[in-house]
Amino acid sequence: MSELLEKGAARTRWIRSRMPLLAAARREFAERQPFAGRRIGMSLHLEPKTAVLLEVLAAGGAEVVATGNHGSTQDDIVALLRSTGMTVFGARDDTIEQHMSNVASVIEAKPDILLDNGADLAAGVVASGHAESVVGGTEETTSGGIRLRDELAGQVPFPVIVINDSMLKAIGENRHGVGQSVVESVMRITNLMIPGRRFVVAGYGWCGRGIAQYLRAFGGKVAVAEVDELKAFEAALDGYRVGDLAQLAEWGEFFITATGAPNVIGPDVIARLQGGAILANAGHFPWEIDTAHLRAAASAVSQLDAAIERFDLPDGREITLLAEGRMVNLAGREPKGNSLEAMDLGFLLQALSLERVATAAAGLVPGAQPVPRDLERLIARRFLDALGADR
Ligand code: NAI
């Protein structure tokens, strides 16, 4: 066994053992063979939890052709998946051009089911004229769902179940998975104390609610900045201080953005931060903190640790930025991402939605659509059982 393969196998063992919902799906799929004779094309982060999902699909009879996301592919996991006979393209150090060519290779393999991320595969099969042979697919992200309903509207002749539109995923993954992992990452990267420290969370959507909740659970003092009045109202009744970001800038010591919107922490907010303020982002795009402005305004920039940079401003203030403003829960040494249980839930949604498109596509409409309600209820019941919630 190669060193890389051994590492991938060892890192996946614990994770597989703590994903009971996927373990049950694996047993059921081995019996039902919902993907017999089907080729599933995948574009999703190639990390240990995804490997467990792919094993489940393969147990259901699928031939798997896969690639990862740019910059996040874990080479030991690629080695592990290849050792099981899957076709996997990509490596950690791929350039963006290599990544695009990996996505093209998945499309050229003419998959009949798509497990997509950001609608790259759906757009690719439409552009290359392979769409007719696809029976259906799933889409993991909000941004992919928007693309399917907008740019690709009317062009996708097969059903695509948008996993991110599910309430189960919003609660299990965005609120509790991201909430826990963002706070864990901030602690791991900075090694600072949370209790008694003043935090400002920008955005009180699914992720922001979780981040605020877990910071408070550790004893942090938390304020919320939210542009939607109803969510600001909810934050206030949940017991948080609520205000404008510009106003909270002077109060906060630690700022975490989770909005999906650009330049939430822009020049006006940066101008009002106290010296020593720490900035981090949890949103998908690295644009929520205006890092270009911070860089241009700084008289000196120094790297203090793997994911910690200090910006010295000419007026004497020093501002700290974590993970270059990229998703903080995927950064730093040994990033873990969302909890195993949150991904067990999210990937069971994936697995059963893929089974639905493989076996009952005729009962679904073409294009983007939510996860069927019966699947959500089934998965919620299974999650409660696995948790032992009644005990
Ligand atoms: P959401 O739509 O539920 O919440 C976003 C909230 O931000 C909304 O309530 C909106 O009103 C608010 N907002 C927008 N602009 C704002 C501004 N300028 N100031 C203050 N609030 C503002 O979305 P969700 O699910 O919470 O996702 C947020 C971001 O996190 C997205 O970019 C999403 O892709 C990303 N995400 C990150 C994950 C991770 O692992 N780090 C995992 C899942 C989602």
What features would you describe in this structure?
The chain is 45% helix and 17% strand. The chain has 15 helices and 15 strands. The protein has helices spanning 3-17, 20-32, 48-59, 75-83, 96-108, 120-127, 142-149, 167-190, 206-217, 229-237, 245-248, 267-272, 291-297, 340-360, 373-387; strands at 39-43, 63-67, 87-89, 113-116, 136-139, 159-162, 198-202, 221-225, 241-242, 254-257, 278-281, 300-305, 308-312, 318-322, 367-370. It has an 8-stranded mixed beta sheet, covered by helices on one side. Helix 1 packs across helix 4, helix 2 packs parallel to helix 3 and helix 8 (167-190) packs antiparallel against helix 14. The site of 1,4-dihydronicotinamide adenine dinucleotide has 25 residues, from helix 8 and helix 9.
Order of helices and strands: HHEHEHEHEHEHEHEHEHEHEHEHEEEHEH
Main sheet summary: 8 strands, mixed
Q: Report the β-strand fraction as a percent range.
A: 15-25%
The number of distinct helices, counting runs of at least 4 residues, comes to 15
Write the layout of secondary structure elements.
Blueprint (H helix, E strand, L loop, with lengths): L2 H15 L2 H13 L6 E5 L4 H12 L3 E5 L7 H9 L3 E3 L6 H13 L4 E4 L3 H8 L8 E4 L2 H8 L9 E4 L4 H24 L7 E5 L3 H12 L3 E5 L3 H9 L3 E2 L2 H4 L5 E4 L9 H6 L5 E4 L9 H7 L2 E6 L2 E5 L5 E5 L17 H21 L6 E4 L2 H15 L4
Parallel strand pairs: 1-2, 1-4, 2-3, 4-5, 5-6, 6-15, 7-8, 7-10, 8-9, 10-11, 11-14
Antiparallel strand pairs: 12-13, 13-14
Bound molecules: 1,4-dihydronicotinamide adenine dinucleotide.
